[in-house]
Amino acid sequence: MIESAHPREKGAKILLGQADSDTTYSSPEVKLRVWRVFSRAVAGLHAQNTLRDDIDDVHRAIYNPTAETISFRPVLVRRSLGTTPTTARQLAYNLVPLMQFVFTNRGSDQAVGIWRVFEEVYVEAMDERGPEVISTLRAVRRDLQQASQLNMEALGLAYVGKLDEAKAIFQQVLRIRGENGDHEGYCRTLCNLALMCADMGEFGEAQAILDEAIQRAREYVRIKAWALVLFQKGLLSDRQGNRAGALQCTAMAIRTWEQTGLPLPEQFATAYESLGGGLNDVPLRPDGHVPHEN
């Protein structure tokens, strides 16, 4: 069962959030049960042809242990196609951020097991499109593994000064990640490319690349990526001697990160304070909207 609201009833628990200190919910058995309920809820959304931009925002999903349900935030729902059929490929791409979250935030062996549970529950709970969705997603994962290997190769080439070769490989990484719906990875790759350009003294090109990353993060509502790109833009501005611009970008990065509900990265606070800002002076947006940079 899927709840459309974000309930405040007694007993509701944050799925994977750090705010939950109840040891009852920290046992592996209970975590696995909650993950299964979450997996069924995602399948339920897809069966209804509902695609969410925040499908990987698991720490904001609420588990109700009494009803064995998951409720998702009523915000950041990008599109619901109603009775219009959604292709298996569209559904698979919608799951890419969740898959990347699992494999990024867990050890490799543990991640494989966790993701296998998701696949099994999803296929069982989903309609006839389920097997094709998972098959497509496995192919996507293979492509993204190739992209990660290429990204490491490009970083290595950049480190030894083979910048033209590194640029060419970064372009391959961008193509693979873009084609497979890894928008967060796409933004990270653009940040790597921008850093390399800055090291070459090509600050104008580096700024343009970061602007492209911001546009990508906006379009696909990748809030963490958006904040990280703004942070990189602040670092780049500081390197160019634009301290006021660096301070502004870092403040926007902090305000944007606030929308994730996650603890602020230490480097954000350190950079802001080193630029002469005080965290208490950052005007965080109280209305739930992500700020737009000027």
Report on this structure:
- With 294 residues, this protein is mainly alpha-helical.
- It folds into two domains: 2-135, Transferase(Phosphotransferase), domain 1 (Orthogonal Bundle); 212-294, no CATH class.
- The chain has ten helices and six strands, in the order ββαββββααααααααα.
- α5 (163-179) runs antiparallel to α6 (183-199) and α6 (183-199) packs parallel to α8.
- The longest helix has 30 residues, at 130-159.
- The N and C termini lie far apart (42 Å).
- Residues 1-24 and 284-294 have low confidence and may be disordered.
Number of strands: 6
Largest sheet: 4 strands, mixed
Instruction: Give the total of domains.
Output: 2
CATH topology of the largest domain: Transferase(Phosphotransferase), domain 1
Computed structural class = mainly alpha
Q: What would you say the CATH architecture of the largest domain is?
A: Orthogonal Bundle
Unreliable runs, pLDDT <50, ≥5 residues?
A: 1-24, 284-294
Rg from alpha-carbon coordinates: 20 Å
Number of helical stretches of at least 4 residues: 10
Give the helices and strands, then pairings.
Blueprint: E1 2-3, E2 13-14, H1 28-47, E3 50-51, E4 62-64, E5 69-71, E6 79-80, H2 88-105, H3 108-125, H4 130-159, H5 163-179, H6 183-199, H7 203-219, H8 223-239, H9 243-258, H10 266-274
Helix pairs in contact: 1-3, 2-3, 2-4, 4-5, 5-6, 6-7, 6-8, 7-8, 8-9, 9-10
